[in-house]
Protein 1
Amino acid sequence: MAKQYETVIGLEVHVELSTKTKIFCGCSTAFGGAPNTHTCPVCTGMPGSLPVLNKQVLEYAIAVGLATECAITQYSKFDRKNYFYPDNPQNYQISQLYLPICRNGKVEIETEVGSKTIGIHEIHMEEDAGKLIHDEWEECSLVDYNRSGVPLIEIVSEPDMRSAQEVIAYLEKLRLTLQYLGVSDCKLQEGSMRADVNLSVREAGAKEFGTRTEMKNLNSFRAIKRAVENERERQIDLLEAGDEIIQETRRWDDNKGESYAMRSKEDAQDYRYFPDPDLVPIQVSDEWIVQIKERQPEMRAEKITRYKKEYDIPEYDIEIITSSKHMADIFEKTTVLCGQPKKAANWLMVETLRLLKENGMEPEDIRFSPENLAKLIGLTEEKVINSSVAKEVFEIMFDTNIDPQLYIEEKGLKTVNDEDALRRTIEAVIGANPQSVEDYRSGKEKAIGYLVGQTMKAMHGKAEPGMVNKLLKELL
């Protein structure tokens, strides 16, 4: 009988915090920017420069700890992790080893067999390194220190996950929590959320963990899922062949769909950690924790409960709208402005989701404002424009956030409510289409659809379909 294997997975998730300035200096954290322009003596590791902790980083870390039910370490320190690499300007990274800011938390995830608790071992604060650009044409490596000193928190899970599905469920729950807290945009493609996967396999029922490998370079949920499944198979094949699994760091190549060894990783990698002598210990009072707790926003579960009470919209719509903090904000503000929750939900659920999918965008990338969506809903409800013109205007608004009212006036898209003009157009359409008129009069109800279409065409889409229908039936 073939052996059954169990996969054991733990994650180290690095999250770039959305503070305006870096963790230990006043340089900008904005993404992009010409190389080495968001830098100063502190984040480029100049001798004699001194770091000063950004208070916002600490508050964000505590907020995440509270949202994931961690114990907050009220006396905490920074440590130096020593390693020598060109993108690490001081030749050490300021991190937290001995007294991380948060410990022993948990995240509840939904799986195919019900809910499951994934333990969080710790959350610590640290600084990011710079970025190396390898120029193969010039045969040289360039370094950009703009990212050096950008604040990170590292969320280290317990080895509680058993499949790629559980890994994705955990990451999605974590990302949503962080986005709701407003501490990070969590854009994997920009590197503001990065996951390293520690994975081992063991025979089903075994108590001891197998030898683990660490997978790096994972910048999408799809890549993470594929990497987990690939590494599980690779380790099982090695065990089946009687070979040994080597503890190592592996790099995932998503284009090739395979990983390769980067470096062997001994358990006792000697980073020679010691407390950072330039930074004072952090003391967090009970009062401060209470203040941060009181400032915590409404999280998704609470939002879902409130929406069910307050808005008469389907549960499915509530699930989708609240799955993005940005979309939920747009929905709520639009509803306040136009008083039409159903209409606001419909625009988000149908047209917005369609355009996001067509453009390969995330809900966080929505650019139109609640004010403009509310205006468009108002203009449609007041029959200033008909539904097909509204969709046309919405597409422009989705791209450029134009003011729909101004756009409609500029382009002359208002519905023609002049009954005499409409009657004259319909009479001309009836005169030009005797066959359709004959079909309708001999009982073919569908023939009127063609006549409505011809009338709308003659009116350049600016007539109200209901009114066209009514007048056509009268004249026929």
Note: Residues 298-411 form one domain.
Protein 2
Amino acid sequence: MKGIVFTEFLELVEEKFGLVMVDTIIEESNLPSNGIYTSVGTYDFAEMLQLLTSLSAHTNISIDDLLEVYADHFFEVIKRNYAFFLEMYTDPIELLASIENHIHKEVIKIYPDAELPTFEVVEKTQDSLVMIYRSSRAMYHFGLGLMNNTFDHFNTTATIVTEILKEDGTEVKFVIQKT
């Protein structure tokens, strides 16, 4: 997992819960990196899971909810540092439908060894989209949060329904309908 995911997560924790919480979750976790991350480095997903688990235990916020809060933060990072991804589109359905074939290809140019989830477009209309998320990491709530932020960015509303296809959350169907 790319370091930017870790550095921005710790930034979020500091903003929302304070520097003491950052220190606490790092100290409580058994991190091979010792909690020292660079945005271009690559780190084991198990470290993120440990940090999330520790933060969840201290805040009584579920990991899924923390991932959606983190998605809100990360979307702001995208808007600030990678606005060109958003500026290429005028419609959220078009943007989401292009994740696999366009956006992820651009991300790989920036982070060549990034391990990205896949998003298979199953069905697409002007007002709806069905996609299958597949990843070795069960972070689909992060993806859900990014999708919700995408609709907010375009001042559009949508209903997004998730259907867990694999019990461990590594394969999920997203059914998206503009409202």
Note: The first strand starts at residue 118 and ends at 124.
Protein 3
Amino acid sequence: MTPTVVLPVIIGGLYAAGVYLLLDRSLTRVLLGFLLLGNATNLLLLSAGGPSGLAPILGYAEPGEMSDPLPQALILTAIVITFGIASFLLALIYRSWRLVRQEVVGVDEEDRRVARRSSTDADEIDPDDLAPEDRPAMHADSMPAEDVERVLARDYAGIPSDDVDLPPTRGEQR
């Protein structure tokens, strides 16, 4: 392989690995996938900048011999954006770990309901035609807030929570 083919192959591999990791339910893998996408984008911008040249700000070289400063500015911007989103994902991972002692996003009841109705078109569904347990939250006849609090207190009695405003939760599936 020639050097002109190696860099695009590496960029494509980083993008493929990043997308693969983004599709996982583990938040740590999502973070790693996002970091790989950020690095692949930086390499893509660097390769799009063309060959290196002299510094454009000094004015010693002719315009054809100078480096293009735009890709460098875009790479710096991409680094800052990647850092900001990575720190946000780290905060989500930490919060998820503190609440449920696991960093994997679990399958909840709404996911199961959607999977059961996957063959139904969303335009054909009228909430009034669905069974009460399949109706979306905040529908006219959904469970009152007092009943929700009573059910949560019954199901999670004695399980400590680290947040005063949130009900206690369990890490395992029922």
Note: The radius of gyration is 25 Å.
Protein 4
Amino acid sequence: MSVENPKFVTLLHEQIGHEFTAMQQYVALAVWFDAHDLPQLAGFFYRQSLEERTHAMMMVRYLLDRDVPPHVPGIGEVRNDFSAPTELVALALAQEQRVTTQIEALFKAARDRGDFLGEQFVLWFLKEQVEEVSSMQTLLTICERAGDDYFKIEDFVARETGDGPDDPSAPPVAGGSR
């Protein structure tokens, strides 16, 4: 496959790094919420970090299945200095919007080369990004409405978020699920 679509493989390797960086950034957000006694928000972002790791490992599994040696990169810089929940959630939304652009570039690289298997693989991630951006946008709206009443945000997260059922259409994960 690497000979057939080198741009796609390069972008997929880069995306693995982006997913691991997103994982680490979500851990940093979760730790901030944990340190500020906001357990619902902490739990939400700990789960988000695991989801990003899972996405990276789906990409690793795809490369392995296509007989392309995966490269696991180091991660990028992670921010830890925040002052209020709205700031953390705004960063998470911007991160998800950036990932959406990256996934769109992967899809385009597959489509431009007629890489139907790569295109089909990326479709699930495009669907996932619609959900991720929407979820973060809603959470940001709730944070903005709640102002300094962080417990309203906690109530929303407890009531409206959590682990849903596994998506049976999700790509397989290297090393097993979660």
Note: Helices lie at 6-35, 39-65, 85-112, 116-146, 150-160.
